[in-house]
Amino acid sequence: MPIAAQAQRSTDTNFAECQHTDTPPKATIAACTAVIERRGESAERKAIAYGSRGTAYRDLNDMDSAIKDYEAAIRLSPQSATGYLLRGNLERAKREYAQAIEDYTRVIKLLPNFAGGYLGRGNIHYDQGDYDGAIVDYTAAIRVDPRYDPAYASRGNAYLVKGDHRRAIADYNAAIRINPQHFFAYKGRADAKRAIGDIAGADADLAMAKKINPNIGD
């Protein structure tokens, strides 16, 4: 095989491993670094590589390296929502809420029909105790994707903490219809049923949640 063809095959292999979600984090970092350092690589592919490498660093709990890579991805591809979404997720984990809201809002502006942007911003409102604001964003996520079960479950959580148990149950029902393995929805519905005195229903839902995920608490 000619040297140029071998080099191209190696590059393609690195790029594939860099993007593959089943690649272990350290192998992802090595593959993505090879893509980033390759001369002549396109800005688009380098941006993807920075994003993937940043996520691998995050999985290794190296948050400083992760944020640097997400920022590099954004510089290379400022009109791509992916870098903002990834950085917003990391900022939420670091409780940098103001910055996270800015990034999720940028995602929404770039991709107004992407439910994940509204979900991310809604989660920040929820974390800050702004449950009405969270409900607004979760509802927007459902409006653009009526089968997006995380938004129903999250809105159910917001209704639950507000004491609106029947609306919470309705949202948990919707999440479970879409995704019967959604153990958090079963757990939330158990809490809502217990609050309205349906102890048998609550016990059944909690048992189902534990059947799906034995590690879930009471």
What does this structure look like?
By secondary structure, the chain is mostly helical. The chain has 2 domains: 1-112, Alpha Horseshoe (Serine Threonine Protein Phosphatase 5, Tetratricopeptide repeat), CATH 1.25.40.10; 132-218, Serine Threonine Protein Phosphatase 5, Tetratricopeptide repeat (Alpha Horseshoe), CATH 1.25.40. Helix content is 78%, strand content 0%. α4 (63-76) packs antiparallel against α5, α7 runs antiparallel to α8 (131-144) and α8 runs antiparallel to α9 (149-161). The chain is elongated. It starts with a helix and ends in a 6-residue tail after the last helix.
At a glance:
This protein has 218 residues and is an all-alpha fold. It has helices at residues 3-19, 25-37, 43-59, 63-76, 81-93, 97-110, 115-127, 131-144, 149-161, 165-178, 183-195, 199-212.
**What is the helix fraction of residues, given as a range?**
over 70%
Number of strands: 0
User: Which class best fits the helix and strand makeup?
Assistant: mainly alpha
Order of helices and strands: HHHHHHHHHHHH
Spans of at least 5 consecutive residues whose pLDDT stays below 50 are: 1-8
Q: What shape does the CA trace take?
A: elongated
Sheet bearing the most strands, described?
none
**% residues in beta strands:** under 5%
CATH homology superfamily of the largest domain? Tetratricopeptide repeat domain
Number of helices: 12
Mean residue pLDDT: 93
Return Rg in Å: 21 Å
Tally the structural domains: 2
- The rounded distance between the terminal residues' Cα atoms is 61 Å
CATH class of the largest domain: Mainly Alpha
